[in-house]
Structure of Thiamine kinase:
Amino acid sequence: MTPPDIVARIRALPCWSGPVTPEPIEGGITNVNYRVRDASGIFVVRVGEDIPEHHVMRFNELSASRAAHAAGVAPAVVYSEPALTVLEFIESRTMTPEDVRHPDMLPRILDLVTRCHRDVPAHLHGPALIFWVFHVIRDYGATLIARDSSHGALVPELVGFGNALERASGPFDIVFGHNDLLAANLLDDGERLWLIDYDYSGFNSPLFDLGGLASNNGLSPAQEDWMLETYFAAPVTDALRHRYAAMKCAALLRETMWSMVSEITSDIEFDYAAYTAENLARFRAAHDSFLNG
């Protein structure tokens, strides 16, 4: 849909109290989002079809969003129809990596993530997906080759790294993961925190969310040890630290290959090439550290 088509479709939704003027929200790198005010309040409209190349299926995002709201970690879903979801707008501040790293904030964020892992499944209805990062990496590799990506020469090496990291990350526990713990998906309304955007949610190892939280937000080694000890309520063993380091590398590798695929598939205005280069450098540094650690 073109922007005028999107705006016209949003205006025609039956959930509004009176006429509305949708305003685009900048910053999304997977979806297009609009803010809408009507006589009853303010809302966010998420616009997006299924994105099979990224394993994003909107039925899954919708059911996860509803379950996350019921679990007390996400805004309410107000209305939905194919490719459009209307959510409660939270008057809040979007976090930055600096916010996430703050010693007063990190415990609150870890509690929010823990509640997502623990409580969302009790409210989840219907089919649910698994988000297996190692399968995603292999599938991204196949997509990059099939679509003649400029990064195609790197695919055998990167997929090989992913396969080795899969072997190093087990044995696995399974929780319901958010699987996209960027600072931009964390909101602070001054009283409580919110976890938004469930595009990639699904059952997964908790180490993927913990590793993603650390790698996306620059946690220090001391903060990572604290996070693991607090989450698992036990001293951090060398074995756990090794599994976690492998999964953190996998999170960085997935983000890198997500960006490579987005370079050739996304219509959103964003410098994916620069994002690829940044994440590839971060992955290689983390992987070298993992191999030499």
Q: What stands out?
A: DSSP finds ten helices and ten strands in the chain. Residues 3-88 form a domain with the Phosphorylase Kinase; domain 1 fold (CATH 3.30.200.20).
